Amino acid sequence: MKEKKLNPATLCIKAGWDPKKGEPRQVPIYQTTTFKYETSEQMADLFDLKAAGYFYTRLQNPTNDFVAAKIAALEGGTSAMLTSSGQAASLFAVLNLCDAGDHFVSASTIYGGTFNLFAITLKKMGIECTFVDADASEEEICAAFRPNTKLLFGETLTNPAVNVLDIEKFARIAHSHGVPLIVDNTFPTPINCRPFEWGADIVTHATTKYMDGHSTSVGGAIVDSGNFDWSAHADKFPCMTEPDPSYHGLAYARSFGKNAFITKATVQLMRDLGSIASPFNAYLLNVGLESLQVRVERHCANAQKMAEYLSENKEVAWIKYPGLPGDKYHELAQKQFTDGRSSGVMCFGIKGGRERSIKFMDNLKLINIVTHVADAASCVLHPASHTHRQLTDEQLIAAGVQPDLIRFSVGLEDTDDLIADMEQAFAAIR
Ligand SMILES: *Cc1c(COP(=O)(O)O)cnc(C)c1O
Fold first, then answer.
1. Which one is predicted more confidently, 365 or 50?
2. How close is the Cα of 1 to the center of ligand 1, in Å?
């Protein structure tokens, strides 16, 4: 009998850890650094990747793998790995394909931390990134490609500008240059967007955000669709098809097929750079994942109400939320996102500019000022003074961040209470 594909809400609970008779209902925490074997040879086979098994938590841990498998199932991918943060996931996704001297192309409207990683830190390591306007024509974006370009990167829903990425367009551009499309799907989560269905090859996540959902644990994930054919582009990706001297001549694409990307990132990058998630954090992440579907739906329903309230407020100069019919990305969100839902995040500016926006924020009582989004508790942030502080005005505009922009992440509180909080803050600055 062919197994019926389970729906996302069911996968949130059932995928990954599948307890047998008498086993714990909740994923066990393997809080251990190492794993015992009976003969020296058994261990040697693990080191040679001849046998699968756990030996040291820096490389792999069962708790982490159960949780990664759940995320892979939600995204519809072949394999996944957890990382210690979203930043580590972005770093590993790029380093898995780029060596010093290589180049890649990225949308400029991306998370501030990712922008910094790509523009400054990777550059120091000899890897160059060209930033493009994600809304530019295909010809303009193609012009950024070079013979040594190894990948195209974008965010499916950008933080903080909430621009929607045209994933099909980006996939076409990447594939016409023989490289994979990697997308950061943190904001929509697989509940609202499944990038592989639109042609993306690899997905990254800051699980820190909605997946965890309760501000408990920083973490990241990388998921592979298994769709990119490394062997067909062996000239560009010898790292996937040629023997790896650090593994006695093992070639990842040949030995691991659709799991080559994650296997290589685990045995090379995790081994050498060690950004492993702690098993305890993976356990907390799994608890968050169990309610991801219901939480994301409620975050989005609440955000829709708040966006409608703000769009009708005379004090608000402008608002961006893909759920609003007039929004630049409304149509694309309707097409690409499940039931047109984007996320619980929006941004807006207050009449009177930067100073008045900040004053408004300072007067909020219920809504927190924190460097966070996608939390059960509603929060606001002023990116120009906080997350994007290190960017120049030019880079701010390129990242889609106006100086008066307030990022508002709508939580799971009652929207009547959130509206009352905003009303009193507006009254205080009048
Ligand atoms: C937060 C975030 C990151 C970085 O994640 P950390 O877990 O904070 O390292 C990357 N991408 C997006 C879209 C994010 O919102």
1. 365
2. 41
